[in-house]
């Protein structure tokens, strides 16, 4: 009775199943698209070892269907109706896994650093004017988007030698974390994030005495620890000290940790632990006691777990969703804006390597002797 | 404005003389409430007809010889609820080849009709309409591309949020073979513009391939959500049918019967033949390094009649063609 309709639906179903299937003839180990760091009761003190992803259940990406049913009968009998979004996500996850499989660990880390729950914030930001408007210039946006999708930030990129004497990768991640010549720009980035956090806290009536870059206490000497932020909870009168940091999640020290985790920003977690270990033992005594919170983001935008917890609690109640979402979105944008600026600046101030092989010594090595 | 205690306005009233206010979230519901009695009256007067309404679009499936009477009834009964029928905007078509009815000279379409933006008709008609859709999409994309060079951020947003949702709706409604053609053309258009927008036209082939493959993924997966229409065509078609057949308020007996048939059916024997090439190439390297762009040619859609065998039905045949052989098919009338 139904003529070609039933075979056509079955053909569609077969195509869905084929699109949602990741074909591979070999094993590539645990995929970041199926991994998540084990939960810890204390995320700051109990860091998971890198690449500890064996036997961890699938999580991280939006939950795609666990395989597409093979028959229309199964589709009709399923307890809940499969949506187009679920079926399409299954295809996207399979496509992503196929793209991911042949990549190097560092390339996986770069990709994983761009994935996650809130990672779609900055590309979806409307380009409004004003200091917090979210607009990016054309060149910055192009460079940022190219970095985002894993290609070089400028067209026809070639291997380059940075002014610092290091060989820069074509993607320009050298300038995001390891280059001494990009320190001033990284400082601008740090300052922009700090002042954005301070501005949001100042606007919240539950905080008082919010001060960015507070002066050292009287009598303290220059090498003393100097947190970036100081604020006081109105309800308890407890002073809170914070220190902002942006960590390059794709730096060599963090590559394996980033690549194995889509949901948990491993690099930010490590930096948070370092910050807590650095500042907490030296908190001033007082009643109520001082507390310290790290304010750590990864360079690609993911927020550290302790930072996220603090911001959620700090901006809780009626303004929670708007204020917190606005802060995270704007910091995301700040980070990508400065990422683009740093990379573009680095490219502009570096030397094209031409056909010189990568193994060759830096052209300016003689200047360092 | 009604004044409350103390001379302050207790409420503001915006009086609408006719229809519903543009932008009113309840406007569609109020319109449906007003139109509902008229649709019921039409259905009661013409018992052989199926009357369907979606906001101000009304469609009737009926024998051809009754369509003109349905039009007259719609005009008469609609006037009772202050709805004015626009005969010039009505269209009628039957999948059974026949001469235009003498009482529907202007409404009759020989090849098909466009219902809620979706072409319904013969292969040539649907193909031509799909080409028009692709051309319209290309025009929109070119308009986005014509923005000033410094507007890359706005251009990307417009591409992702304005041009693609239109296509998604269309892919859910078109026959899959036609949807595949449209998706391929839309993807090609968007990819071309994306490469130009990001200055990647002069990049190496591998770089362009990486860029387009990643861009086809959703943003939360590190992509841009651009250029993935070809991948989601089967998902859109299946999901659309499931949404229809598993809805709690399916009223059409034919859909009830189809749901029953699907619930009882195991694998359809002809499906594998129709789905020739459904599986991805088995020759894909062990690393799975083939890109989605390379799978397009084997994404599992029915091929042409020449490749699927003489007994295979036309992939462009609309669902209406599923009626028993030898019976005259009903006509559709959309207003």
Largest β sheet strand count, sense and barrel closure of chain A: 4 strands, mixed
Structural class of chain A: alpha+beta
Q: Strand order across the biggest sheet of chain A? A: 3-4-5-6
CATH secondary-structure class of the largest domain in chain A: Alpha Beta
* Helix/sheet category of chain B: alpha+beta
Number of strands of chain B: 8
Could you say what the CATH topology of the largest domain in chain A is called?
Restriction Endonuclease
Number of strands of chain A: 7
Strands side by side in the biggest sheet of chain B: 3-4-8-5
**Backbone shape of chain B:** globular
What distance lies between the first and last C-alpha atoms of chain B, to the nearest angstrom?
38 Å
Strand content of chain A: 5-15%
Span of the ends, CA to CA of chain A: 86 Å
Described by the principal axes of the CA atoms, the overall outline of chain A is globular
* Oligomer kind: heterodimer
Question: Which percent band covers the strand fraction of chain B?
Answer: 5-15%
């Amino acid at each position: 009775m139904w003529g070609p309709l039933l075979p056509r639906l079955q053909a569609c179903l077969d195509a869905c199943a084929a699109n949602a299937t990741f074909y591979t003839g070999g094993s590539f180990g645990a995929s970041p698209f199926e991994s998540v760091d084990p939960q810890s009761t204390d995320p700051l003190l109990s860091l998971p070892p890198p690449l500890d992803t064996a036997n961890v259940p699938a999580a991280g990406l939006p939950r795609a269907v666990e395989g597409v049913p093979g028959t229309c009968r199964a589709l009709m009998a399923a307890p809940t109706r499969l949506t187009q979004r679920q079926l399409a996500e299954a295809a996207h996850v399979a496509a992503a896994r196929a793209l991911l499989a042949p990549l190097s660990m560092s390339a996986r880390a770069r990709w994983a650093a761009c994935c996650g729950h809130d990672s779609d914030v900055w590309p979806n930001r409307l380009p409004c004017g004003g200091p917090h408007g979210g607009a990016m210039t054309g060149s910055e946006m192009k460079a940022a988007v190219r970095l985002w999708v894993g290609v070089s930030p400028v067209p026809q990129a070639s291997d380059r030698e940075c002014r610092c004497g290091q060989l820069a990768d074509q993607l320009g991640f050298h300038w995001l974390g390891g280059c001494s010549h990009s320190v001033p720009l990284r400082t601008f980035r740090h300052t922009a994030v700090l002042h954005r956090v301070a501005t949001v806290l100042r606007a919240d009536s539950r905080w008082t005495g919010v001060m960015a870059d507070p002066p050292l206490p009287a009598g303290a000497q220059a090498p003393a620890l100097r947190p970036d932020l100081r604020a006081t909870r109105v309800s308890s009168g407890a002073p809170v000290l914070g220190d902002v940091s942006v960590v390059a999640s794709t730096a060599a020290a963090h590559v394996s940790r980033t690549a194995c985790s889509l949901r948990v920003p491993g690099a930010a977690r490590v930096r948070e632990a370092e910050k807590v270990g650095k500042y907490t033992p030296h908190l001033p005594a007082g009643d109520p006691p001082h507390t310290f919170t790290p304010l750590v983001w990864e360079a690609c935008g993911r927020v550290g777990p302790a930072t996220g917890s603090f911001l959620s609690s700090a901006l809780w109640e009626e303004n929670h969703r708007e204020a917190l979402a606005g802060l995270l979105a704007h910091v995301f944008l700040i980070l990508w804006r400065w990422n683009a600026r740093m990379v573009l600046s680095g490219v502009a101030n570096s030397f094209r390597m031409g056909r010189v092989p990568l193994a060759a010594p830096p052209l300016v090595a003689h200047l360092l002797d | 404005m009604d004044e409350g205690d103390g001379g302050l306005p207790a409420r503001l009233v915006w009086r609408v003389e006719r229809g519903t206010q543009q932008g009113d979230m309840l406007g569609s519901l109020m319109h449906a409430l007003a139109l509902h009695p008229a649709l019921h009256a039409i259905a009661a007067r013409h018992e052989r007809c199926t009357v369907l309404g979606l906001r101000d679009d009304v469609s009737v499936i009926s024998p051809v010889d009754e369509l003109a009477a349905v039009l007259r009834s719609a005009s008469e009964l609609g006037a009772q609820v202050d709805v004015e029928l626009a005969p010039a905007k009505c269209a009628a078509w039957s999948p059974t080849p026949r001469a235009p009815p003498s009482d529907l000279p202007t409404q009759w379409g020989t090849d098909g009709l466009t219902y809620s933006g979706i072409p319904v008709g013969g292969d040539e008609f649907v193909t031509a309409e799909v080409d028009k859709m692709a051309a319209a999409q290309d025009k929109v994309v070119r308009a986005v591309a014509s923005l000033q060079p410094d507007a890359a951020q706005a251009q990307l947003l417009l591409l992702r949020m304005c041009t693609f949702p239109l296509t998604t709706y269309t892919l859910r409604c078109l026959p899959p073979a036609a949807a595949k053609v449209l998706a391929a053309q839309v993807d090609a258009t968007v990819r071309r513009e994306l490469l130009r927008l990001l200055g990647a036209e002069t990049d190496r082939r591998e770089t362009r391939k990486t860029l387009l493959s990643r861009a086809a993924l959703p943003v939360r997966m590190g992509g841009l959500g651009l250029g993935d229409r070809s991948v989601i065509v089967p998902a859109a078609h299946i999901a659309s049918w499931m949404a229809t057949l598993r809805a709690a308020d399916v009223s059409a007996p034919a859909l009830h019967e189809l749901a029953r048939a699907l619930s009882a059916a195991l694998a359809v024997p002809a499906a594998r033949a129709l789905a020739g090439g459904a599986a991805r190439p088995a020759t894909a390297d062990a690393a799975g390094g083939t890109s989605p762009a390379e799978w397009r040619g084997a994404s599992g859609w029915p091929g042409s009649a020449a490749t699927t065998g003489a007994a295979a039905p036309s992939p462009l045949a609309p669902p209406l063609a599923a009626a028993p052989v030898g019976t005259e098919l009903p006509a559709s009338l959309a207003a």
